[in-house]
Amino acid sequence: QVQLQESGPGLVKPSQTLSLTCTVSGGSISSGGYYWTWIRQHPGKGLEWIGYIYYSGNTYYNPSLKSRVIISVDMSKNQFSLKLSSVTAADTAVYYCAREKLGAAVDYWGQGTLVTVSS
Amino acid sequence: DIQMTQSPSTLSASVGDRVTITCRASQSISNWLAWYQQKPGKAPNLLIYRASNLEDGVPSRFSGSGSGTEFTLTISSLQPDDFATYYCQHYNSYSYTFGQGTKLEIK
Asked: Most buried by CB count within 10 Å: which residue of A16, A50, A88, B53?
């Protein structure tokens, strides 16, 4: 059974960089066939797709966030990470890491972690 | 950008009812559509992928249909566990958009 777990600071100051890591267990990121994905949900709102990384290192980002987002992978630790720069209060959200099975949508999600942007 | 519009935003129904939620795309997305269920404080759970394929472990009372620009999620007989928020999502490697959600409430 695949499990994903987000980790990182729950509070980030405005203008700084939000950094989160997702640790994958029960499956290997390097096996291919999946996009390793970040999705966020503003409090009380809907879901917003942020971007993904493939095991090859290829990435694709939401065009509305592309200038501020970097997703990277560390296959030695079976982890992938999100960096979102120049954050504002509008980036306050629950951040989910997830696995998208190619052609078959997001089949596994982390539990989510709330990140608050505040001074 | 492709926009996904769900209707209704809120739906009140009773246990045993048959309910349908609609998702419309601003342009044709073939069958690149998924449906998720989300309960408060929890991550979403995949119900349907490729518009009509039931994810493993999802009860058969859930079904999806449609292609192109109009899609539906149907719950054939509502159970108490089904009261939640439902999201559609367009996905296809280079285009991802969620609908705004449909909250299914107990009447």
From this structure: A50
